[in-house]
Design a protein that fits this description.
Gamma carbonic anhydrase family protein; 202 residues; UDP N-Acetylglucosamine Acyltransferase, domain 1; globular; 8-stranded mixed β-sheet; 9-stranded parallel β-sheet; alpha/beta
C-alpha cells in the first residue's frame, strides 16, 4: 500500500479496511472499520485531518484534500463515487456523492443526501438531511425518498463487504492468454434503482 507519513503524522487504518495498492493515503488520516479505498484514489492529509468513519468507501480516482488547518469527516457509510473530488467538505451519514462530482470547502452534505453525478457543490453550501442535490451550481431539487435511500444503502453494503473480499481473494497475477472453458460466472446480485421500481416486491 502507498501509505506515507507527513511531518510526524502517520495514517491510522483499521485492519478490516482495504486500501488498494495503487491508492495513496498521506499524513493525518484516520480510517475506520470496513472502509474501501479504490485504485488511484488519493486521501491527502498533509495540511489537515481527514477522518473516514466505519463503512465509508472512496472509489477509484477520487481526491480528498483541504486548505491548511481544516479537519473534515466522512460520517459512517458515506459513499463517494468514481472520480469525485472532496475538498475541505464534511459528508453526513449514509450519503451518496455521485461520480465526478466536486464538493468544495466548508460545504456540509447532510445525512442520507444524494448528490447527482457531475454536480458542483460550491464552498460553504449547506444541505439538510435527505436532500437530492444536482447541477452546477448544485441545488436541492427534492427530498430523497425511502425507496431511494434503501437502494443507496444496499449498494453501500456491497462496498462494505468488498474489503473482506479483497483481503481474501485479490492477488496480483499474470494474465491468462486464452479464455478457459471453466471461467467462473459472476453473480448478478444487485438491481439498479429503475429495476427495483419495476419489481413489485421491492
Amino acid at each position: 500500500m502507498a501509505i506515507y507519513s507527513f511531518k510526524g503524522h502517520i495514517p491510522v487504518i483499521h485492519e478490516s479496511s482495504f486500501i488498494h495498492p495503487l491508492a495513496a493515503v498521506i499524513g493525518n488520516v484516520i480510517i475506520g472499520k470496513n472502509c474501501y479505498v479504490g485504485p488511484s484514489a488519493v486521501i491527502r492529509g498533509d495540511w489537515g485531518e481527514i477522518i473516514l468513519e466505519d463503512g465509508v468507501n472512496v472509489q477509484e480516482n477520487c481526491t480528498v484534500h483541504m486548505f491548511p488547518g481544516k479537519s473534515i469527516r466522512f460520517a459512517e457509510s458515506a459513499h463517494i463515487g468514481h472520480g469525485a473530488v472532496i475538498h475541505g467538505a464534511n459528508l453526513g451519514r449514509n450519503c451518496l456523492i455521485g461520480m465526478n462530482s466536486v464538493i468544495m470547502d466548508d460545504a456540509v452534505i447532510g445525512d442520507e443526501c444524494i448528490v447527482g453525478a457531475m454536480s458542483f457543490v460550491k464552498a460553504e453550501a449547506v444541505f439538510e438531511s435527505r436532500s437530492l442535490i444536482v447541477g452546477n451550481p448544485a441545488k436541492k431539487i427534492k427530498e430523497v425518498s425511502d425507496e431511494m435511500i434503501a437502494w443507496k444503502t444496499a449498494g453501500t453494503k456491497l462496498y462494505q463487504q468488498l474489503p473482506t473480499d479483497c483481503h481474501e481473494s485479490m492477488r496480483e497475477v499474470e494474465p491468462l492468454r486464452e479464455i478457459p472453458k471453466n471461467r467462473p460466472v459472476q453473480e448478478d446480485f444487485y438491481k439498479t434503482l429503475q429495476e427495483n421500481k419495476k419489481d413489485s416486491s421491492v
